[in-house]
Write a structure and sequence with these properties.
heterodimer, A: 13 helices, B: mainly alpha, about 75% helix, flat, PDGLE_dom (chain A), CbiM/NikMN (chain A), membrane (chain A), transmembrane helix (chain A), Cobalamin biosynthesis protein CbiM (chain A)
Chain lengths: ~350, ~270
């Protein structure tokens, strides 16, 4: 699931770098403020542990293949989201530098895909809510498995989105998604089983280790802030992705638009179009014979581009409206969950 | 279990390269980190059908390997091991994009093959740049450079802890895995049940070790930051290094020397 630099465009890589760097800064401030400094060495050493654990394989029953731990959800359960995010990020940085597992520019993507989703989406929003205060053993198992599977669907989904948005690889969105998601459903199942086994081992041997993370700073986790963040994120992705998606389906058309229009992925209105045309005129491709192949299909290309402009803004609008509706649903379900939680808390006290 | 030991040895070898004493090793790490970033951004920013314009960028890894006296074969092997991962996705390009773009005499090359080759070249360039950065700088120095460039201190300290205990824990994990392997003839007993308790005990041991480490460090006056033995200064050599490489990358990004040279040669003969 590590993304490589070679498949990334600077726009996508830079955006994800900014997102990950911002989250790291936020988490560092949070860890510094909230936790005793004992946690920092613990995080580092647990990161080293994750490294060691990932080197050890186990055989998966009935398949003849072997797997290893991913560990994102495990760290979130052990350390709480902020510390877990930092630990995952540092493991990924070491992997990128020493094993060239995922590139340095792709590091932002990788940290986000493998750190943000388990630590800030799955753990606080799904795991904590489903787990309740005093879970039975079977509940603990299935919730952990379920959460690991969600995390390992969100991550690959983001990988597909980032790769397709970069436009270096040409695998169509749907095909890529169909390749990635089913495989990761199986991986997520295995990851969940292993994670829940390790958690229950720790609970049996040293239950006090699991207490601080469960109690840590989650009273102050404001649902409102999460939702505002998601609102912004969803509107942004809805706008960007749908503008792009409507342009994507016809591979040939896409290629032609690229040849005449440079290398950016979203059309940004008339200014960008003229700039692109200008760039198309200025840049020479004698090596690759581009002007010739472009002129072969010239009659279709300009018409297409002009046509697609209003369509694009239309679908962007639809994307934003759609994401607003979805968000409304999410807010509602969140409120319902929160209400249920409150009732549970008051029922216990 | 050869694989864990081998991975560890490989890791240590790369780590030891940073102890070299070339002029490149002595530069302030910040300059090296920034130059690699400029390099990566310029390589990545090419359009997906660009191939010839990417090739001149190999000058960067080549010069660095030469200057810092790094083992080229070892690095090439490491790079070659990683590239297939990028190609797994890139190999679909020829299937999707079959429009002919280049005619080399009678051979017609489709855009898909062109972009696939471009992905391969990008992978070679970016991976080698990252490895060379570690080999000439070393992980602790990179961390310090990133911290000076604005990375939060908590994150930097935690990264340094991770790095220090990585070898210890990997060896411990390797020993545990070897013991399990010796007790499980024909791989029975390597299933999830024994795996989870093995990892669980490794986790508990790690946790206790972390507590001991922290107490020992407190006893020795740890204040939350690592002390540095070697102080770097961003002086004139660093400034020159950063500026000259950046200027070269920008030039290579704007003009395509491979193409210009090719045009010149073909013009000479026609």
């Amino acid at each position: 699931m590590h993304m490589a630099d070679a498949l990334l465009s600077p726009a996508v890589g830079g955006t994800m770098w900014a997102a990950s760097a911002g989250t790291i800064a936020y988490c560092s401030a949070k860890v510094k403020r909230d936790l005793d400094d004992r946690k920092v060495p613990l995080m580092g050493v647990l990161g080293a542990f994750l490294f060691a654990a990932q080197m050890i394989n186990f055989s998966i029953p009935g398949t003849g293949s072997s797997g290893h731990l991913g560990g994102g959800l495990l760290l979130a359960i052990l350390l709480g989201p902020h510390a877990a995010f930092l630990t995952i990020a540092s493991v990924l940085l070491v992997q990128a530098l020493f094993f060239a597992d995922g590139g340095l520019l792709a590091l932002g993507c990788n940290i986000f895909n493998m750190g943000f989703f388990p630590a800030f989406v799955v753990y606080p929003l799904v795991y904590r809510n489903l787990m309740g205060t005093r879970p039975s053993r079977s509940r603990e198992t299935w919730v952990t498995v379920f959460c690991a599977m969600i995390g390992l669907q969100l991550g690959p989904l983001a990988v597909v989105l980032e790769t397709v948005a970069s436009g270096i690889a040409e695998l169509p969105f749907e095909t890529f998604l169909l390749l990635m998601l089913p495989i990761h459903l199986a991986i997520g199942l295995v990851e969940g089983v292993v994670t829940s086994a390790i958690v229950s081992f720790v609970r049996k041997a040293r239950p006090e280790l699991l207490e601080p993370a469960a109690a840590a700073s989650f009273a102050t986790w404001s649902l409102r802030r999460v939702l505002v963040g998601f609102l912004l994120l969803a509107v942004a992705t809805g706008g960007v992705v749908s503008a792009f998606a409507s342009k994507d389906p016809d591979g040939l058309e896409w290629a032609i638009a690229r040849i005449t229009g440079g290398s950016e992925l979203q059309p940004r209105g008339p200014l960008h179009q003229t700039l692109a045309r200008l760039q198309g005129k200025v840049v020479l491709f004698p090596d690759y014979d581009f002007p010739k192949s472009a002129s072969k299909t010239e009659p279709a290309a300009p018409a297409k581009v002009e046509h697609s402009l209003p369509v694009h803004s239309g679908t962007s609008l639809a994307g934003m409206v759609g994401s607003l509706v979805v968000l409304l649903l999410v807010v509602l379900s969140g409120l319902i969950l929160k209400k249920r939680n409150l009732r549970k808390v008051y029922g216990i006290h | 279990m050869a694989s864990i030991d081998a991975a560890l040895l490989d890791f240590q070898r790369l780590d030891r390269l940073a102890a070299g004493s070339s002029a490149l090793h002595r530069l302030d790490p910040r300059a090296k980190v920034l130059v690699v970033l400029v390099f990566l951004v310029s390589v990545i920013s090419f359009g997906r059908y660009q191939l010839s314009a990417l090739l001149p960028f190999f000058v960067f890894p080549a010069v660095l390997i030469g200057c810092a006296d790094l083992p080229a074969g070892y690095l090439a092997r490491k790079v070659a091991l990683v590239c297939p991962f990028a190609l797994v996705v890139g190999i679909f390009n020829p299937l999707v994009d079959t429009e002919i773009m280049v005619h080399l005499g009678p051979v017609a090359i489709s855009g898909g093959w062109l972009s696939c080759a471009s992905i391969l070249v990008r992978a070679l360039l970016t991976v080698s740049a990252a490895l060379i950065l570690v080999a000439t700088t070393g992980f602790p120095a990179i961390c310090r450079a990133l911290e000076q460039l604005g990375m939060p201190k908590v994150f930097a300290v935690q990264l340094l802890f991770l790095y220090r205990y990585l070898f210890v824990l990997a060896e411990e994990g390797g020993r545990a895995a070897r013991a399990r392997e010796l007790r499980s003839f024909g791989n029975k007993g390597q299933g999830m049940a024994s795996y989870s308790s093995l990892i669980g005990s490794l986790l508990l041991k790690t946790w206790q070790r972390a507590e001991r480490i922290h107490m020992a460090m407190l006893a020795r006056g740890f204040t939350g930051a690592f002390q540095v033995r070697q102080h770097y200064r961003f002086g004139r050599p660093e400034f020159l290094y950063l500026c000259s490489w950046s200027a070269l990358f920008v030039l290579l990004r704007l003009f395509n020397p491979a193409e210009l040279f090719g045009a010149f040669l073909t013009g000479l003969f026609s």
